[in-house]
Amino acid sequence: LLDLWVKQRLNGAKTALRDCARPIMADQTEFDYVIIGAGSAGCVLASKLSASGEFEVLLLEAGPPDRNLMIHIPAGVYSAYRNPSINWNYFSAAEPSLNKRAVWTPRGRVLGGSSSINSMVYMRGHPDNYDGWAEDFDLPAWRFENCLPYFRAGEASDRGADAWRGDSGPLQVTKSHHQSPLIDAFLEAGDETGQGRSDDLNGYKPEGLSRLDATIGNGQRCSAAVAHLKPARGRQNLTVLTGAAVRDVKITGNRADKVSYTHRGGPRTVQVRREIILSGGAINSPQILLRSGIGPEDHLQDAGIKTQVKLAGVGRNLQDHPTMVLQFKSRKSFEMHRLNNPLKKLGVGLEWLSRRKGIATSHIWEAGGLVRSHDNAARPDLQYHFGPTGFEEVGNSFRVTQGFSFHIDLLYPESAGRVELDPKNHFGKPMILFNYMAAAADMTGMMNGVKKARDITNSAAFKDLNGGETGPMAQARTDDEIKAVIADECATDYHPSCTCRMGYDDDAVVDEWGRVHGVEGLRVVDASIMPRVVGGNLNAPTQMIASRIADHIIGVAQLAPEQASYSFQETEIGNKTTHRMTG
Hints:
Helix content: 25-40%
Number of helices: 14
Largest sheet: 7 strands, mixed
Radius of gyration: 23 Å
Distance between the termini: 53 Å
């Protein structure tokens, strides 16, 4: 086992060397495409744009290689995302409706980006989300029938291939497998409470309680770097440079043609023959645009930056899924509750190292659900992540407790925020304001989510398991008490988006293929271009978006539209269940 561990560390070192195997030696070095950010979108783009061998591609990542072992052990997720060496560690400004609290906002700063530190949940969002993009923002290319074939082609699901799922793509997707009476009770409660049950929230019935899918393959995290970048690393036309922090994009005439960045303590500039593609995510992509003089003229003037391209929407329209965490004691102890025992923890680690088996292959949030906060909701507007263990924070780490936990996400908040430059330090951390709970409807929706989660724990299925609620929300019973705790405790579920949104109105930043309005040779491809946040985790949709736009960039025909039926509860006709076709 020791030899195996040593080999893993050596392989990590070799990977690190490959990251700088083709260093940039001179400012006049040229590439066809420069991709900024090696996250969920950037890894997909790097793979697809370099696949033919025709184009020279440079991928710049500010963070280090993904050789930290905790990245790859699914149960190591809490160690990974709290590691400051692979995390941007942002904080929001004082949130007005959250008692002026600054909300911690972790984002991946490592190969794979946030897909290397997230909780690995694979969720696409409701099919209506994409049809809504098409109808509400004049983006017909983004109807769900056009996105479905890319979702299917992108994944290798252990569920097997069908009208909804794919089984031969690069991204390994595994259905939750950890066995626990707590998960069984959670699923049973879906039927008992009328909140519903589904076999596949990414399939025919995108509503109810279900076991979740995770980006895990062979017992290991399958990040975007593992799925897309690793197979492409041997290509002579692909250069991956870590520790490369981009400063700005240079514009000559009406064309973006250079990228300025720092590497190994020195300034570098690279010339770009075809396109520069920003894939830094919903926080970093608008930050780089603003530093480049692309954005709202008033903000750029306040920051002392000359306006190159006036785009009022850059950094605006920040959307996220606010979350509340509820915790409960468990009357009975189960396997996951015993991980504090050093001998148990050692055994679990050795089993993973030797066989890629055991509880270390669990990403904790094995079950979840998409449900409606009220009877007249047009579609599920709440998401659960259910974990068969409790947690308590000890310093900068977590300790498991004998309990179970809920994350309750508000999927379609009315409140929106912004990302701006710090006027005193353009190259420091940006100023982020989510504006959580600014809309009264958002506070009501989150309050209803707390009540619906409690309905599950008070069901007959949990009769012999629920040992009582713990934590700050435990004593809150009235609406006002619940809302007060939400203001004290509400946080991010790590899904920032929409700050460079697609569209053609005055607030849009890019067109339907990610091309920045008003300048040639520059695109944004990541979650920031979503016109409205989808109802689920963002990793899978972001990879789908990148794959589609990569085909558009290199002139490959889009995959043919595919229609698949899904169950949809039409609230306006008396909760009757109907089936309709997408598209």
